[in-house]
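Long-time lurker. I teach an intro course on protein structure, and each term I like to show students one example going from raw sequence to a predicted 3D structure in token notation. This year I'd like something fresh instead of my usual example. Would anyone be willing to generate the tokens for the chain below so I can use it in lecture? Attribution to the forum is fine with me.
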Amino acid sequence: MRRADGTRRRIARAAFAVAAAMMVTAPSDMKKDMPGRIRAAAPLRLISTLPDGAEKEFHYYLASRFADDMGFDEMQPAWTDDEGAALDLLRGGAADIVICPDTVAAPGFLRSRSLKNVVWMLRENDAELLAVLNGWLSDIMKAYDRTYGTAAVSDVKKGIISPYDTFVRRAADKYGLDWRLLSSVIYHESRFENKAVSGKGAVGLMQIVTSVHDKDNLHDPGTNIDFGAGLMGRLIKSFENYGADSTEALKFALAAYNIGSARMLRYISYAAENNADCTRLDGVMDAVTDMEGFSGSRVGGYVDSVLNTYYDYTRLYGK
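-- Reply from a regular --
Happy to contribute to a lecture. Here you go:
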């Protein structure tokens, strides 16, 4: 067994060395650009030793955000289960960061703050990058906790977004929707607060307006989610039938969910009278800026926010 394990590791090390040779091998030429930001003239070369799963995907997502925020040209990721090989590449300058469990003994390297038992390793001479990284990780995790840490229930490792995932998944399957899209709508409607009531009488997780939709027991999570999901599904189909492609139909549906389908249809009618492209939400919004009661900035902000959260959820959580 020991010989087989050694052979496996040598094969993994050799294969990983080939992959590493394809990465940019010159050390990153980094310098301070502004407080909390690094300007890099080369890609961020990243190696992860985490096993496949939600945790690996989460840290890949964080690393891609870090590369974008810090101004690296791009991120060049690689993966291996051989932690020794990864650290050798980091030590030799063929990588900039190694992401690994915080139980890994690695003297001679700098390590970031631990994120749920995972650390990012850097070379000893990269103290400046470590300081920026730790500050960035602290800020991004605070924002993540504010946005997605729903009552200490959200758990990326376990694939949990909210306490209502069972209801959300059931409704998503029933109406042909992505459960992560529904979760995104619920987050922006109520922050997953089942007892939420708006000043206009919208109630529950998906903020159903009782004066418009005559439905009993909307404070029951399953009922509220089922009703809201059904409404969202019908809106998407109606805009697809109207001629919008699937992406634009989703945008129109979110806008209609936010401001009401009647107002959205008035916008489309007005835009059509002015020869606008009514198969695109932006085309309609641009055409109705002078319309009385126009709330385009609100609509655009809501749609963008929901879609951004949906994008994050699709990166963090499986189907």
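Some talking points for your students: The domain at 2-148 is CATH 3.40.190.10 (D-Maltodextrin-Binding Protein; domain 2). The chain has two domains: 2-148, 165-316.
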